[in-house]
Every structure is written in structure tokens, then in C-alpha cells.
Amino acid sequence: MTPRPVRVLTALLVATAAATVVVEVLNFWYAPDHGAGFAVRTAWAFARTLGWLVLISQVRRARATAKPLSLILSMTTLFAVGRLIVPASGRPPLPGLIGFGVLTLLCLTVVVLLYRHPAVDAHLIHQPRRPVVTREGLSFREAPPGDPWVLTARLASFSYSPLMLVPALIAAGTLRHRLEWTLAVVFWILAGIAVSYVALLSAIFLRRGSHRARTTLTWVTLMVLAFDLPLCRILLGVDGLIRDGAPLVVAAAITLYALRRTAVSL
Predict the structure, then answer these.
(1) Residue-wise DSSP of 214-231
(2) What is the DSSP letter of 62?
(3) Nearest to residue 123, comparing CAs of 40, 67, 185?
(4) CA angle, residues 84, 88, 90, in degrees to nearest 5
(5) pLDDT at position 260
(6) pLDDT for residue 31
(7) Which candidate in 35, 62, 152, 225 could, as Cys together with 68 as Cys, close a disulfide (CB 3.0–4.6 Å)?
(8) 63 lies in the same domain as 110
(9) pLDDT in tens, 36-88
């Protein structure tokens, strides 16, 4: 039988997913401007709702991956929704602020339960299944337990690509006023796509205990920040740097901290 704290956690996850949708609808309703930038940010925020559904599935399957996924998902959700609340000018609408406050409380509660409650910790013991070739043929077996910080670094680095593509697509919507930046934005989008493959390859070797993969992912993180943040400042202004650059900085900080924690084991 599923422990009661796990059932409570599942209910909180459902409530968090629902709250995300409600807050986004409120933001859309009260937003004075529904331009291209707002459309891209809204689509990204709605995509985070699907992530909560994945997290619910992970908890029900007792997967250890639920912990780092909840941390990354909570962080990106709060930034994705938070930047919709703050308008380009004027004060944020009160219903949006209240909804964001409720969503923040739910996200914090979910993370605390996943990381601090002993019953939840004892429940999340299963690892993802991997394909294994044996004499009997291809089968799927549960992977052996690994370093949780390695898993955290992997998941955090996977968020680099969408966190780069969101501001790049917003900048693409403003190119009709400054065509001289077209090549830079195209390269920005391509870099956002390419970094997903680099992060994936680094994550594969990092899982195998490669010190070189750890070094590579560290340099990739630093280069992503050095490339993305100046473009956010130049093409989207200070507002864009805060809205779209800050989530990437937080994701990078989580990745670097997790890599540092894995240094001893690697």
C-alpha cells in the first residue's frame, strides 16, 4: 500500500499542475500586451505543466529521478510563470500575484517533501530501466543506484536548451526593426539546439563516472552563460536579461554545484 505522505505528495503535485494552468490563464487575461514575446513565454510556461504530469508519474512509479526533477521543474516553473506576471510597465495584477504566491508555496512544499520526508525518501528507490542485451535477447532492467548529484547535474543541464531557445525566439520576433542582428539570432537558435546534444552526450559519460565529461559539462555551462546573457542584454534589454537570463543562471548554478559534489566520487 502506498504510504500516506506519498499520497499527499501526489495530491500536491496535481494541485501544483492545476495552479500553474490557473495562474497562466490569469496572466493571459490581465496582460495588456499579447505580443510575440508574451506568446513564446506563455507557451513555455504551459509546457512546464506537462513536466508536472511526468513528475507525478515518476512519484507513482517510485522513481529516484523524482527528486532532482522536482527541483529543476519547480525552479523553471516559478521563473516561467513569474516573468509573465510582471508587465513591461505598471504594476502586476493582484490576482496574478496571489496565484503566483500560492504556486510558490506549493512548489516549495513539494521540494521539501521529496527531499526531507523519510517516508517519501524510502518510497523513491527505483531507478530507470535500461535496455540490456543478454543471451535471451533484448530486455529492460533497472539500472543500479547512482550518485544523486550526477542525476541532478544531468537534469539541470538538459534545461539549457529550452532556456536558450525561449529568449532567442522572442528576439526573432523583433528582427523586423533591426535586421542587422538576424545572423546572431539564427546562430543563437542553432546554439540552443546544439547544446542539447552536447549536454546529452556529456550526461551519458558523466553517468559512467568520466572525469572528462564532468570537465566538459563545466565548460559547456560557462560558455552557455557567456553566450546567452550578453545576447539577452543586447537584444532584449535589462528586462529580458532578468526575465530570461536569470533562469539560466540558476540552472547553471545548480549544475555546477552538483558537479562539484560529484568531484569526489568521480
Answers:
(1) HHHHHHHHHHHHHHHHHH
(2) T
(3) 67
(4) 105
(5) 87
(6) 64
(7) 152
(8) yes
(9) 666 777 777 777 788 889 999 999 888 888 888 898 888 888 877 776 666 65
Choosing from 118, 143, 168, the residue where a domain stops is: 143
Terminal Cα-to-Cα distance of the chain (whole angstroms): 37
* 199/208 Cα distance (integer angstroms): 14
C-alpha distance from residue 169 to each of 71, 190, 242 (Å): 26, 11, 16
- In which residue are the cell numbers 547553471 written? 252
Q: For all residues of the chain together, what is the average pLDDT? A: 82
CATH code of 30's domain:
1.20.140
Q: CA 222, 238, 41, 226: dihedral to nearest 10 degrees?
A: -10
Which residues, given as ranges, of the chain have pLDDT below 50?
none
DSSP character for 262?
Answer: T
Amino acid at 196: S
Do residues 122 and 74 touch, judged by C-beta distance below 8 A?
no
Per-residue model confidence (pLDDT) at position 93: 72
Clarify whether residues 152 and 124 are in a common domain: no
How much is the pLDDT for 168?
92
